[in-house]
Design goal:
By secondary structure, this protein is of the alpha+beta class. Helices cover 62% and strands 17% of the residues.
């Protein structure tokens, strides 16, 4: 769970999750939303993937990223348990 909260602590990663909430996107499509380098966005995607918050699926020469709703539900449940 520590990796998950660390991943969520960064505003860029939270923005990536917001984008993926709307639709699955390739790394390039995600990178277009940020003024940072592609390498920086790639790093953030790696952290999110390692935390289990996003899933990656290869489509030819691209990798398409999507939200892992199961992990997000677990995080929400953990937060609700802490609050009660």
């Amino acid at each position: 769970m520590d990796r998950t909260f660390k991943a969520l602590s960064d505003p860029t990663r939270r923005k990536i999750l917001q984008l993926l909430r709307e639709e699955d996107l390739t790394a390039g499509e995600i990178a277009r939303h940020f003024p940072t380098s592609w390498a920086s966005v790639s790093h953030h995607l790696g952290v999110l993937k390692e935390a289990g918050l996003v899933m990656a699926e290869r489509e030819g020469q691209y990798i398409r990223y999507s939200l892992n709703a199961t992990v997000l539900q677990e995080v929400l449940q953990h937060l609700l348990d802490l609050a009660s």
